[in-house]
From TrEMBL:
Pathway recorded for this protein: Amino-acid degradation; L-threonine degradation via aldolase pathway; acetaldehyde and glycine from L-threonine: step 1/1
UniProt xrefs under InterPro entries: ArAA_b-elim_lyase/Thr_aldolase (IPR001597), Low_specificity_L-TA-like (IPR023603), PyrdxlP-dep_Trfase (IPR015424), PyrdxlP-dep_Trfase_major (IPR015421), PyrdxlP-dep_Trfase_small (IPR015422)
Name of the protein in question: low-specificity L-threonine aldolase
Organism: Glycine max
Organism domain of life: Eukaryota
PANTHER family named among the record's database cross-references: L-THREONINE ALDOLASE, L-THREONINE ALDOLASE-RELATED
GO terms, biological process: L-threonine catabolic process
EC number per UniProt: 4.1.2.48
Positions of modified residues (N6-(pyridoxal phosphate)lysine): K217
UniProt keyword list: Lyase, Pyridoxal phosphate
Alphabetized SUPFAM superfamilies for the sequence: PLP-dependent transferases
EC primary class: lyase
Pfam family, one: Beta_elim_lyase
Protein family per UniProt: Belongs to the threonine aldolase family.
Gene: LOC100800811
Length: 370
């Protein structure tokens, strides 16, 4: 994992951090709001600023209640564990979704919940018929875990930030209801999906029983997520948050920044998407690199090194890092960049020129047809 300190050691003054949209720094307005936030003990009662954020988020997402949690990982864990409240429950989820890949298997190790993986398509969806086929037959209860929950992820990070349509989400919701199941959406970047699709966020998640929304991603808050759902769901979630050590005291300091972020940054997401498309189009002009431009729907760009190009992702990432540009390496032949509100159009042009140089370095070009 590249870090800013390593870049600074190279005496690079300009840092363009494209590793993730989690890297944004709080703005001056966020810092001012943090410094002056009205706070109280959120475990013994309600922190007033946390209450304001939770009230605003419940309304925005079209749900009855909301709860601030320290991270998206905890938001997903709590949501799954509230729905799957009996050990040996099973959740149907995508094989490349974040809950399945990047959350340490917490639903199983902590909650005793069995993950039932269904193949994610390139667009982040799971075939509806495969979801239905994965639902356990209650008649087989002697052998099978009990299916309780279906999880979707919108946007889908490992598909490159692809958006799940409202029509698809509604169909999965209908399927869940038909089988007496609940639907959770990992909505770490749900605002990106809403903006890209032009669908109001409350409509996009209407079919879901719960949603985990990251404030710390494209929205640009320094910390935190919010889970939304019914009053009964959130009451159970609040208790589980405490069990997991997520009940924090004067969290208004963090929630104040999130309130500013919601005001300042939702409107900037379309610009993040435009910068991603600009970068993707520019990268496709670089001999040796390839981007599936159709898959760039929001703020993420996966960059593949073309067959025959004599370099590897770690070499390109190192070359970029030496010039102050931080890129996430996904594999020996794949890199990821994520745009956010603290990346400017000139940063995009600078990154493009450095990618061009990285691959144009002598001997790196394809052996044939240089
Ligand atoms: C799709 C998705 N869900 C959940 C998370 C987890 O969020 P956090 O890093 O705040 O735990 C992430 C990562 O940032 C993510 O990309
Ligand atoms: C790396 C992953 O956990 C994080 N959610 C990101 O997209 O940056």
């Amino acid at each position: 994992m590249r870090n800013v300190l390593a870049v600074q050691e190279n005496m690079v003054t300009r840092i363009v951090d494209l590793r993730s949209d989690t890297v944004t720094k709080p703005t001056e307005a966020m810092r001012a709001a943090m410094a002056s936030a009205e706070v109280d003990d959120d475990v013994l009662g309600y922190d007033p600023t946390a209450f304001r954020l939770e009230t605003e988020m419940a309304k925005t997402m079209g749900k009855d209640a909301a709860l601030f949690v320290p991270s998206g990982t905890m938001g997903n864990l709590i949501s799954v564990l509230v729905h799957c409240d009996v050990r040996g429950s099973e959740v149907i989820l995508g094989d490349t979704c974040h809950i399945n890949i990047f959350e340490n298997g917490g639903i199983a190790t902590i909650g005793g919940v069995h993950p039932r993986q269904v193949k994610n398509n390139d667009d982040g969806t799971m075939d509806i018929d495969l979801i239905e086929a994965a639902i356990r037959d209650p008649m087989g209860e002697l052998f099978y875990p009990t299916t309780k929950l279906i999880c979707l992820e919108n946007t889908h990070a490992n598909s490159g930030g692809r958006c799940l349509s409202v029509e698809y989400t509604d169909r999965v919701g209908e399927l869940a209801k038909k089988h007496g199941l609940k639907l959770h959406i990992d909505g770490a970047r749900i605002f990106n999906a809403s903006v890209a699709l032009g669908v109001p966020v409350d409509r996009l998640v209407q079919a879901a029983d719960s949603v985990s929304v990251c404030l710390s991603k494209g929205i640009g808050a320094p910390v935190g997520s919010v889970i939304v759902g019914s009053k009964n769901f959130i009451a159970k979630a609040r208790r589980l948050r405490k069990t997991l050590g997520g009940g924090m005291r004067q969290i208004g300091i963090l929630c104040a920044a999130a309130l500013v972020a919601l005001q300042e940054n939702v409107g900037k997401l379309e610009s993040d998407h435009k910068k991603a498309r600009l970068l993707a189009d520019g990268l496709n002009e670089v001999k040796g690199l390839r981007v599936d431009a159709c898959s760039v729907e929001t703020n993420m760009v996966f960059i593949d090194i073309e067959e025959g190009t004599k370099t590897r992702a770690e070499k390109i990432c190192k070359y970029m890092e030496e010039r102050g540009i931080l890129v996430m390496q996904e594999s020996s032949s794949r890199m990821r960049v994520v745009l956010h509100h603290q990346i400017s159009a000139s940063d995009v042009q600078y990154a493009l020129s450095c990618f061009q140089q990285a691959v144009a370095v002598k001997g790196v070009q394809k052996e044939m047809g240089n």
